[in-house]
Amino acid sequence: MTQSLLTIALLIALSAFFSTAEISLAASRRLRLRQMVDDGDARAALVIRTQEQPGEYFTVAQIGVNAVAILGGVVGEGALTPFFAEWIEPWLGSERAATVGFLASFTLVTSLFILLADLLPKRLSMTEPERLAVLVCRPMQWLMVVFKPLVWLFNRLATGLTQLLGLPTVRDERITSEDILALTEVGAKTGLLAIGEQQVIANVFELDSRTVGSAMTQRDRIAFFYQDDSDDIIRARIAEEPFSTYPVCVGDIDHVVGYVDAKDLFQRVLNNQPITLTDEALVHKALVVPDRLTLAEVLTQFRQAHEDFAIIVNEYSLVVGVVTLNDVMSTVMGDLVGPSDEELIVRRDETSWLIDGITPIEDVERALLLSELPHSEEYETLAGFLMVMLRRIPRRTDKVVWGKYQFEVMDVDSYRVDQVLVTVVDPNKVPDTPVPPATTAPVA
């Protein structure tokens, strides 16, 4: 009995070893292993190489797990069944005692293998995969040599079956932006990464999806000069609307001939020199980009042109806005930068927000904890969302209800939606699918 119990314990330990080897290799993160290699752990490099071609490794693990489990059942049945049968026989008789003894030994051995050789090692391997993988990888390499003929046979059979079923034979190691964002979200939830830092990372990946319209200064808010403006007009405009850069136009804003830096104007003012925008040394050539570019593409244009200011035009060559490098970086930094008086989204209380109509729709979705608003490919701002849902130009007091939120237009200035009040109308409703917009007629 003692020898049989020691044999069962040894088999459980072997099965736990193979389970640990299998799960730890599969769960080990490539980035963490590379960091261990950089720290001087050569065993991590062996794990990485094994992950690249894991077929033989997993074959050995499966041979070991199944062979040991079968052997454990045989040993356990032979050692424990007579013991249980002898103990139960006075109450049930010899025939029934043999059956019950077999069931008891089978249940006990199976339970021990499930708990100690399967669940416990696999749970440990999931929590510390890299640390355990470097410990078991070298012994598994030795076993791969010992069981080379069996490994070759089963590996060939498994590969053939996999190809026959049209399944992939190599693990895809590419890391996508979704993978990185998922890791940063987990890091923020566990406290290892600040929420603001996680948001900055998420904003960086949004640069490829956000168009320049979500960050630009709108046409009606552009401060610009006419080329023939007098010195007094230029000085008055600088004092009234202080900006770092001003477009210079001829006739109207749609005919931009360049731009002028505020620092150049200030230098002339301090030196008591007259300001004339016909001076070619003062007016620089402007970078003009289409309004369909993403923010990432705008950054590329800035880098190639060595500029930090651009004029945005639509397909009809009409100026729709201007954008600076600071605008793009403010989009990346989010709430970490920017004065409070320029906030586009103001939370009034737990169930309502006051939002500017030009707010990028991505910021609205983030503030309201929405995954996506309906028809999001057709607009870029909150005002655009209202136009699409209403199918007309929004008017004051117009309302759109979607999901658990009501969007009410509070102020309109010459067809431009200035302020929108967003309130929670049904806290329990989750916006799975778009619902028809609800509108009200404007108040007379």
Automatic annotation (TrEMBL):
- What positions does the domain CBS occupy? 282-342
Record bears the keyword Secreted: no
Where, subcellularly, is it found? Cell inner membrane
**InterPro entries (alphabetical):** CBS_dom, CBS_dom_sf, CNNM, FAD-bd_PCMH-like_sf, FAD-bd_PCMH_sub2, Ion_transp-like_CBS, Transptr-assoc_dom
TM stretches of this protein: 97-120, 132-154
Keyword Glycosyltransferase annotated:
no
What main location does UniProt list? membrane
Q: Which PROSITE patterns match?
A: CBS, CNNM
Q: Which CDD domains match?
A: CBS_pair_CorC_HlyC_assoc (cd04590)
- What UniProt keywords are attached to this protein's entry? CBS domain, Cell inner membrane, Cell membrane, Membrane, Repeat, Transmembrane, Transmembrane helix, Transport
Q: How does it sit in the membrane?
A: Multi-pass membrane protein
Q: Domain of life of the organism in this record?
A: Bacteria
Where do the CNNM transmembrane domain residues begin and end?
A: 1-197
A Pfam family found in this protein is: CBS
In the record, the note on similarity to other proteins reads: Belongs to the UPF0053 family. PaeA subfamily.
Q: Which function does this protein serve?
A: Involved in cadaverine and putrescine tolerance in stationary phase. May facilitate the efflux of both cadaverine and putrescine from the cytoplasm, reducing potentially toxic levels under certain stress conditions.
> What is the name listed in the Swiss-Prot or TrEMBL entry for this protein?
Polyamine export protein
The record lists the organism as Comamonas odontotermitis
